[in-house]
Amino acid sequence: MKNIAVIGSGTMGNGIAHTFAQHGYTVTLIDIAEEALKKAINTIDKNLTRQVEKGTITEAIKKQTLENIATSSDLKSGVSNVDLVVEAATENIDLKLKIFQDLDAATLPDTILATNTSSISITEIASVTKRADKVIGMHFMNPVPVMKLVEVIRGYNTSNEVTSTIMELSRSLEKIPVEVNDYPGFIANRILMPMINEAIYSLYEGVAGVEEIDSVMKLGMAHPMGPLQLADFIGLDVCLSILNVLHDGFGNPKYAPCPLLVNMVQAGHKGIKSGNGFYAYTPGSKELKVSSRFVRN
Ligand SMILES: NC(=O)c1ccc[n+]([C@@H]2O[C@H](COP(=O)([O-])OP(=O)(O)OC[C@H]3O[C@@H](n4cnc5c(N)ncnc54)[C@H](O)[C@@H]3O)[C@@H](O)[C@H]2O)c1
Prior knowledge:
Rossmann fold, N-(1-d-carboxylethyl)-l-norvaline Dehydrogenase, domain 2, 8-stranded mixed β-sheet, two-stranded antiparallel ribbon, globular, binds nicotinamide-adenine-dinucleotide, oxidoreductase, 3-OHacyl-CoA_DH_NAD-bd
């Protein structure tokens, strides 16, 4: 394993490219948007500079990491000669199915096709290819260069050999891979999202305020961030869509998204990305201020 292609250069794609390149892999970062590619390289540069300042890497490693990354807006030529593709494009099932059909046609027969999807079935993605044994979930966490976990998700037909290759590869990135099977939400989101939903229900039912709910989980359970702040960080639209996947996939009402979450997303309050969620975000300010909607008298 030497040559890697990463599809999608957004939040996750740039972190995945950064991590592979820093560990000596040659990376082609591919996006349909030229602007997104430029932004990704800037972000990687900035994040590497921060690592140099902290003393975790040297200037020479920073330089080599940047040299290991090429960009392309053409999927076909970008993936024609790689050992592994990690797809991290927008979370949309039709888009991913199309990308995997294209990847199946454009890559060498032995290329492993991984996806960083948070919630879409690996088995369904694999079903549009002629190599379901070589399709696998490689679920990195945000921010990728920092977070240790890779949730490695075996689709129904993923082979043992491909699974161990990806486990080993994750270790070579100084990550800790954990193997799970392909059911809605895998493990990370199956456990995290109901917790976030329950926190939102507690707010909706007036059991406690935003800061109180987050304080209980931070101080009492040693969570580094409360569930409502974490929901804002992930994106409330993303949380809603994952809860819908759990609800549809299991047909169990316990996963039904809280009506308050549905309302907030419909109102455009999506968390940090829209500047408002459970907290209000002012660009450049680090102060955590409860959104005026939830300030208690
Ligand atoms: N953001 C997170 O915290 C997080 C965590 C784990 C997993 N994920 C998953 O990672 C994936 C990417 O999420 P993100 O937050 O980085 O999204 P993002 O919106 O930041 O980036 C997605 C990128 O994909 C590009 N793209 C869209 N269609 C494409 C195509 N056909 N070919 C190439 N590029 C294309 C877009 O231009 C954009 O730059 C999703 O599947 C998401 O569920 C996200």
